[in-house]
Amino acid sequence: MNQAVDYIIVGAGSAGCVLANRLSENGKYSVCLLEAGPPDSNLWIHIPIGYGRTMFDKHVNWGFYTDPEPNMLGRRIYWPRGKTLGGSSSINGLIYIRGQKQDYDHWADLGNPGWSWDDCLPYFRKLENNDLGPGPTRGTDGPLHASSIRAKHELVEAFIRSAEANGISRTDDFNTGEQEGVGYYQLTTHGGWRCSSAVAYLKPARGRSNLEVVTRAQATRVILQDRRATAVEYRRGDQLRTLRANKEVILCAGALLSPQLLQLSGIGPADLLGEHGIGVVADRPGVGENLQDHLQLRLIYEVTKPITNNDQLRSLWGRARMGLQWLLFRSGPLAIGINQGALFCRVLPESVRPDIQFHLGTLSADLAGAQVHDFSGCTYSVCQLRPESRGHVRIQSPDPLRPPSMQPNYLDAELDRRTAVAAVRFARRLADTEPMKSLMKREYRPGLDARGDDEILHFCREHGATIFHPTGTARMGGRTDPMAVVDHHMKVHGVERLRVVDGSVMPTLVSGNTNVPIIMMAERAAEFILADAARPPIPQEVPH
Q1: For the residues 18-25, what does the mean pLDDT come to?
Q2: Strands (E), 278-338
Q3: Residue 292: what are its φ and ψ, rounded to 5°?
Q4: Residues 269/273/274/277 CA torsion (nearest 10 deg)
Q5: How high is the pLDDT of residue 2?
Q6: Nearest to 323 by CA among 44, 90, 94
Q7: How far is 229 from 248, CA to CA, in rounded Å?
Q8: Among 178, 280, 292, 524, which one has the highest count of C-beta atoms within 10 angstroms of its own C-beta?
């Protein structure tokens, strides 16, 4: 292996694979991509429904847990994160969502020029190959597939008609910037296979002589000299190695591990670093703060007909039929996944744009990825789109192999509590509206005892869980913003030749799933990095 390359990318997730492709594309620069997990050779990664198998697989999943959550009855919430090529895009629910126009305009208003919806839209179009065809907001030539669900499902069709009866219009495209509507999700699949960032971006680049991909290589710190990133220290097996960067180090380890690496490297809150005996290179109090996540509230219903995935998965013939559909035609449940029905709407009277999102799942289980129930079941998974609660990620020791402390502070804000209760009430209204009403046999969870606001909120505290979108822990902002970690080109404030490119730099959480927005951000970052590399060096004044 080379001892020095132009660019070191830490983390082969949604962003890291994009950068590995784009930075090596012109052949001018040598690039090394370090990934802590193994190659993405597990077949269940590539079969769309397979995320039920990878949800708890420690070989490809970090399997984190939060600290005990004071607002969630002291529970430690399970946080799966991808640990393989493709990162979380290799184990996620495959939902293709950009968010709302106002999300990005708000980023620009917060002091991040160039991040408005109009600025980001060309990059959303650049990355996608959308089977809805070309349009003012759609792209058809990109590497990431956005595939529509063509097979109609009786439950989803009933869900759509019940939403229409409640005044919500049907739509085929939730990605125009205006989200409100009900319909089927588009998925990051192609031809019955998952289209992760590793498949879309890394696989086509693997044959390039200037790109090296090193798996099972966990970065332990960034080496800094004179406030400049010069190398990355990483562990592979029982060996500790160092790789030098001639140009830049780029952290793409995600909203949990990128702030941990910054803190371990001496960039973060001075008090926290001092507590663990780490020398302060840059006192940035925002590193690890501003943690945001979507809280998932899962209402489970028993269905009157045997039309759910529960029925297929519990039967030997049902499983065989699913397998044959996929093997012969690359179709059926294995090619689609669980969450098919999409709905974005407003539940608070003061909301002027959608404030909640539904994922209607055609199966039910006590936990996402757990054993399905022994009855025909479906899940109304609903989340607040823009929570106000904020948490943090902080190292617990100088040991880089010890996971950091993670405290999301779910339901800490009064708005979040009001939205959670209103969201559950709206889900129940949908379930009680025809034609969905005739398909709902009984409410398994939360159950009839939870009727008042206090009882509903207790259900949210007792059963709420992540919907896998932690972000914001190294947020973008101007140099004068004391809590900003990176500038609008994702360069770390106070340190040269170091960037962070992943969900951690989002100033605020987008209204929906985070995979596609992170890929868009990485496409933009690649242009920033290559533009900087193309600039002639600034002449150094020779002392007399």
Answers
A1: 98
A2: 282-283, 289-291, 295-303
A3: -130, 150
A4: -170
A5: 61
A6: 44
A7: 7
A8: 292
DSSP state of 301: E
Residue-wise pLDDT for 402-425, tens only, equals: 999 999 999 999 999 999 999 999
Q: Which residues contact 87 (CB under 8 A, 6 or more apart)?
A: 11, 12, 13, 14, 16, 17, 81, 197, 254
Confidence of residue 542 (pLDDT cuts 50, 70, 90): very low
Whole-number Å distance between alpha carbons of 482 and 479? 7
| pLDDT score recorded for residue 302 | 98
pLDDT tens column, 259-271: 999 999 999 999 9
The gap from C-alpha 1 to its chain's centroid, in whole angstroms, comes to 31
Alpha-carbon distances of 541 from 246, 306, 374, rounded to whole Å: 22, 78, 76
CA-based max dimension of the chain: 88
Query: Assign residue 226 a region: left if phi > 0, alpha if psi is -120 to 50, beta otherwise?
Result: left
Amino acid at the residue 362: T
Tokens of 230: 């010069």
**Catalytic site residue 46?**
no
DSSP 92-108: S--B-----HHHHHHHH
The two tokens of residue 183 are 């319909």
Active-site option among 469, 488, 493, 544? 469
The C-alpha atoms of residue 1 and residue 11 are separated, in whole angstroms, by: 18
- pTM value is 0.97
Burial (0-12, 13-18, 19+ Cβ within 10 Å), 41: exposed
Q: DSSP class of residue 198? A: I
* Torsion of the alpha carbons at 128, 134, 136 and 142, rounded to the nearest 10: 20
Q: Could you report the per-residue pLDDT of 435-453, keeping only the tens digit for each?
A: 999 999 999 999 988 999 9
33 DSSP β-pair partners: 9, 213
Torsion of CA 233, 17, 24, 200, to 10 degrees: 160
Reference 411, options 75, 69, 80, 79; nearest CA is: 69
Cα separation of 287 and 255, whole Å? 10
Radius of gyration over every alpha carbon of the chain, rounded to an integer in angstroms: 23
Asked if 296 contacts 467 with a C-beta cutoff of 8 angstroms, the reply is yes
| Strand ranges in 259-364 using DSSP code E only, listed in sequence order | 267-268, 282-283, 289-291, 295-303, 339-345, 356-361
Q: Of 282, 225, 464, which is closest to residue 367 (Cα–Cα)?
A: 464
Contact by Cβ (8 Å): 148, 186: yes
Q: pLDDT, tens digit, for every residue of 172-213?
A: 999 999 999 999 999 999 999 999 999 999 999 999 999 999
DSSP state string for 451-516: -SHHHHHHHHHHH-EE-S--B-TT-B--TT-TT--B-TT-BBTT-BSEEE-SGGG-SS--SS-SHH
Q: How many C-beta atoms surround the C-beta of residue 65 within 10 A?
A: 12
CB 535 within 8 A of CB 25: no
Interacting residues of 249 by C-beta distance below 8 A, sequence separation 6+: 7, 8, 10, 222, 229, 231, 232, 497, 498, 499
